[in-house]
Amino acid sequence: MASTKKGISSGWFVSPIDLDESTIPPAELANIPQIFDANPAWFFNWNTTTPDFLYKALQAKGIDFTPCVWNSDYKIADALAQNAAPKYVLGFNEPDQSGQANMTTSEVIDAWGKLADETPKDSILVGPAMSDGAWDFMDAVYEGIKSAGYRLDAIGYHCYRTDMNGFGFSNSQRSIPWMADKYGVPVVVSECGYTQWGLEFPYNATDMANTVLAETVKFWENCESSADVARYCAFFSSGAITRNDTSFSWLARVGSCYSELFREYAQI
Fold it and tell me: What angle do CA 98, 102, 106 make, to 5 degrees?
């Protein structure tokens, strides 16, 4: 039975919804098969809309396009113009990071009240997802939202580490069960991946492959089975990553072939 929780993301397809397929750059179009071959239940692109031709193709396959209100400059009204009743709405993306949503905790809390009011009541509104480890920022935001009495339907969470499963599903503080229990709502893991921060390493090294595969697949399996997880989405790169500050070891494609990790994800 196909997963109802598993998602796939792509940084492509953030173009205006009225663009025709013929006007989309070939590099973007080349990523469409990856979206469908992952067999996801949902797709997002860190934007409120996606080009209409892709939106219709997703609908035809029963894949839910999930809008993301990336920061306070993004308008939920744009998302609702494409779909008046989205199943989920993702909140601000890593507001703690200057290269992402780039908001202070006060700005997040203040903007959240407006977003909560404007999101349809039948949509599941997912709270801001901080970068993995920004715990003080996360505490300030979620305690502020809670204190203000603003709507919060799910926790947003990003998990990037080598001990994805051991950390994410432990009994310790900051685990997924701990978050769900603390705030009384499920968790949406909108980004996750096996990551060795600061390690200079070949990205498809064979001596890492078994460790990466086992740890990552176990995390996905627990996301599937856990009542504390409403949805999850692996972060895949489409090809070789040249940055040398991080070992991103969950490539979707190595050369022209899907990686073993991607194939495992597609089978969930």
Answer: 135
How large is the average pLDDT for residues 120-134?
A: 97
174, 167 contact by CB (below 8 A): yes
Paired tokens of 121: 């009541």
Cβ atoms 131, 158 nearer than 8 A: yes
Confidence of residue 196 (pLDDT cuts 50, 70, 90): confident
What is the dihedral angle through the alpha carbons of 152, 47, 212, 257, rounded to the nearest 10 degrees? 150
Rounded Cα distance, 41 and 22, in Å = 26
Q: What pLDDT does 241 receive?
A: 45
Cα(first)–Cα(last) distance of the chain, in Å?
9
For residues 232 and 224, what is the distance between their CA atoms, to the nearest angstrom?
Answer: 8
Question: Which range marks the domain in which residue 202 is found?
Answer: 6-267
Does 154 score more than 80 pLDDT? yes
* Placement of tokens 């009542």 in the chain: 227
- Find where tokens 């994805």 sit: 164
- Ranges 101-105, 200-204, 229-233: which has the least confidence: 200-204
Number of domains in the chain: 1
Q: Is residue 1 part of a domain?
A: no
Q: What is the pLDDT of residues 38-63, one digit of tens each?
A: 999 999 999 999 999 999 999 999 99
| CATH number of the domain where residue 217 is located | 3.20.20.80
- The residue with tokens 């860190």 is 46
Q: Are 246 and 203 contacting, i.e. CB atoms less than 8 angstroms apart? A: no
Q: How far is residue 101 CA from its own chain's centroid?
A: 14
For 154, which DSSP code?
B
For residue 70, give both structure tokens.
Answer: 């990336």
Q: What gap in Å lies between CA 223 and CA 213, rounded to an integer?
A: 15
Query: What type of residue sits at position 89?
Result: V
